[in-house]
Amino acid sequence: MDVIESLKNRDILKMIERAGKITLKNHGDTITLERAVFLSWWCERGDCAFCYMSTQKPRIKEPSKARRNINAILAEAEICRRIGWNIEFLSGGYGSFSGEEIKKIAERIKEITGAPVWLNTGITSELDIYGPEVAGITGALEVANPDLQRKLCPSKPRKDIIDMLETAGDLGFKKGITLILGLGETPEDLEYLFEFIRDLRIDRVTFYSLNPHEGTVFDDQPQPASLYYAGTVAATRIEFPHLEIITGTWIDNLANIGPLILSGANGITKFPLFRMFGTRYGKRVEEEVRWAGRKLRGTFTDTERLMTGRSYPELDPFIERYVKGCLKNIKVV
Ligand code: SF4
């Protein structure tokens, strides 16, 4: 099957059917809930055309204040452990923490969750400081077409991302990329993506769909069509049966989840966890997974699990705040 032709011809259902079978055969029927844990709300680059951070940069006078409290970050890790969510990666604007600081945070997270973490903390050549606390390195490519990527992410040169991923591979880390759909790419651009995955032996791709932010040039642009998103994921799954695929869906697009799972997603992400947990939106995510005929690892609704866990004196005030934040949204019947 020429998947790019199929996508262009909108043979989406055929692709989804094929991709679904490939996924079940190679990955089984479990779907993970993934959470990107942010380190800061500031970005040294701050000029990607679609990004919320690019609208904030001029407002933040003291970048050090945009760093999150480390205990809050670690408390979030404990919450994820309790409810069975994976930490998709540690993420955050460029230049907010040093490599050594990120390493220490990753070590603490590994102690809490028992699993090494992926990083998505910017382009760096300083990867040899990391060890078993890190599972993989993510390059935030965002756009597969090199010309479009240069235009939309002027301060994230593709070559630097490639160099970083090659170094990551040499050091024995897994390699991932993030990609946003709806930024003006075409189905033909999938060729660039496939080449990238093949050449760099990428282990994991996280797809997002455009979330139009006020103040950016995409402010008034539509999000990509659900079937285009599903078709793109299915095409990627058919081409790369063993690839780990994560798909991002914001709260306003929960109906995408079922089709994305059928198209080959292994995990789903990009939810405002504390706002959705236990609410009809969290329940909806679980329903989407159930109606796709898959099993969900972790929970979006089980408050017992949310409230039961280990205690850490320095983290407890933050854990409590997060738990309370979730519980206040839940309707008692
Ligand atoms: S580098 Fe990342 S955080 Fe910074 S503006 Fe670009 S997409 Fe946003």
Tag the structure with descriptive keywords:
4Fe-4S; S-adenosyl-L-methionine; binds iron/sulfur cluster; Biotin_synth/BioAB; 333 residues; Aldolase_TIM; TIM Barrel; alpha/beta; rSAM_sf
Describe the structure.
This protein is of the alpha/beta class and 333 residues long. The protein has a single domain (3-327), classed as Aldolase class I (TIM Barrel). The protein contains 14 helices and nine strands. The protein has helices at 3-8, 12-27, 52-56, 70-83, 99-113, 146-152, 158-170, 190-200, 226-239, 257-262, 273-276, 280-291, 303-307, 316-327, and strands spanning 30-38, 86-91, 117-120, 134-142, 174-181, 204-209, 244-248, 267-269, 295-297. The protein has an eight-stranded parallel β-barrel with strand order 1-2-3-4-5-6-7-8, surrounded by four helices. α4 (70-83) packs parallel to α5. It starts with a helix and ends in a 6-residue tail after the last helix. The model has no long low-confidence stretch (mean pLDDT 95).
